[in-house]
Amino acid sequence: MNISASPVLDMDGFTRTLVHNISSSLGPGFEVTVSDQEKNNRITYTCLTIRHRDNKISPNIRVDELFSAYKKGIWSMEEITRRIIESYENIDQETTGLEDLYSDPQKLSDKIFYRLINYERNCEILDSFPHFRILDLAIVFCLSVTVSNDESGSVKIDNRLASIIGLDADKLLTIALRNTPKLFPSEFGDLDDLIANIMRKRGIPEHMIPVFMGGCLHSPMKVLTNDKEYFGASCILYPGLLKKFREELGKDFFIIPSSVNETIIVPADCTNIDHLREMVRDVNQTVVPPDQILSDNIYCYPSDFDKDFIAHLLS
């Protein structure tokens, strides 16, 4: 094993050193490569991929955050190398959930779910994926997998994978509408609680939270997400869920697409829609990470959900 500990100054040198270190540590039979992977909203990340000739699963590992940790002195090159190798070795190739992909792909149907992404920001790649357009959004499909111990991940279903599974877009939609609420149960709570929890995670003392929140306390706004708080905006398509909210509120409401991870529900009589639109655009430009932006638009329930296609989804 020959691990380089020489200091590196840029991303290119960092990735080349990682490839050298990991290849030397893992030995023959492994191929370590670096590539740019396009994620949501046409945002690309530099990823490292480890392949072994006997394994079908080749995980992509983002290196931008690792490089940042290295530059800040949080982790040494040796520590980063060790962590990547441990992460790879902890992946159980037989329990990812994809072991039936080629032998019996129909067994994967229970793992199919959907996500909501922005249509225009992803239109250049959507032809390669089974999808549906809804409002200014797109429904895309994924397979739920286990990546390490109890940690879950996903694999996007492109046209090639859909062909292997033997399901077209209509069948994927039918299955995903059934599976997604089960795989990712919805969570609905006060905006106050969400903001307070974020502050706690950032180490703000409990007695200081009301000071920082200021006018946000006792907000009429609610947050809708899933139990993973990841791509939780998809919950707006859970059958019957928005209708249930309408009955509980007793009034129409706006849906603010705050990110791909959650939406905010605002009673329609609490604010001006033009103000909300301006707020969403500003937040998207200044706060939300580019790959997590869902939309600059505001939706109104039920008027924006009266279109035939949406009515079909929610029926």
Structure explained in plain terms:
The structure is a single chain. By secondary structure, the chain is α+β, with helices and mostly antiparallel strands. It has 11 helices and 12 strands. It folds into 3 domains: 11-90; 105-182, no CATH class; 186-314, no CATH class. The longest helix has 16 residues, at 11-26.
Mean pLDDT across all amino acids: 83
**Helix and strand sequence:** HEEEHHEHEEEHHEHHEHEEHEH
Shape: globular
Q: How are strands sequenced across the largest beta sheet? A: 8-9-11-10-12
Instruction: Classify the secondary structure makeup into a structural class.
Output: alpha+beta
How far from one another are the termini? Answer: 60 Å
Kindly state the number of beta strands: 12
Structure annotation, total helices: 11
Domains, number: 3
Q: What layout of secondary structure does this protein have?
A:
Blueprint: H1 11-26, E1 30-38, E2 44-52, E3 60-62, H2 64-71, H3 77-90, E4 112-118, H4 123-126, E5 131-134, E6 137-148, E7 151-156, H5 159-165, H6 169-183, E8 186-190, H7 191-201, H8 209-213, E9 222-226, H9 241-249, E10 253-259, E11 262-267, H10 273-286, E12 299-301, H11 308-314
Antiparallel strand pairs: 1-2, 2-3, 4-6, 5-6, 6-7, 8-9, 9-11, 10-11, 10-12
